[in-house]
Amino acid sequence: xxxxxxxxxxxxxxxxxxxxxxxxxxxxxxxxxxxxxxxxxxxxxxxxxxxxxxxxxxxxxxxxxxxxxxxxxxxxxxxxxxxxxxxxxxxxxxxxxxxxxxxxxxxxxxxxxxxxxxxxxxxxxxxxxxxxxxxxxxxxxxxxxxxxxxxxxxxxxxxxxxxxxxxxxxxxxxxxxxxxxxxxxxxxxxxxxxxxxxxxxxxxxxxxxxxxxxxxxxxxxxxxxxxxxxxxxxxxxxxxxxxxxxxxxxxxxxxxxxxxxxxxxxxxxxxxxxxxxxxxxxxxxxxxx
Length: 289
Prior knowledge:
mainly alpha
């Protein structure tokens, strides 16, 4: 065989290339298939988790926004009329104190829906969710902390061993369960039929105990929550539910100074919501910045 023959050289090169390609293919194919399989599993996982989180939020979003709007209206009314004492317990039976029990109902209803969302997403990987859905869930986790985490009063004289102006989380969740009936949330008429003295003594005491001067720690927590609530509505609600910057500032100007804003900031950062423009704007108004 004459290896100097160009035809033979071309044939040998072609054969060598073919052998090399076959060897390379034999080595790379399993690696590629393994990579592709891993990628597909990861992609399918992220898609499915993202889908389930979105479905859980969508299932309750409208009900939550309606409850948030109703509670927001009451918070605006209460901010103006707390000195009137409509929320105070007097000689009348609690069930006849419409302002007080309707306030408690709107509050509990909102948090019961938040709790439903939290329960349905607890085993889902929300870290792969869209930024919009993840921020939504961060709000859901932040709301109860404003009432159940005693560090909201850090830096002030407050007995941490007593739940005088905050709720123990388990007690709080137990109240939320009581407005559920066969997985359905009670409407207000059904709520009025419950035994307030035995089922909701803590929440009745909490709201009825807010000072007329709006200077107690309960007021501070409620006022802080109200601004966070309005930011949430601005971020996820309808245009007709939005609170304008002018309204924020007017509300702040009409109310006593909130003294726990620094702690609220800490909660917001801890919840990963410091980048929310709506929340930042609302809290700047609360801090009178």
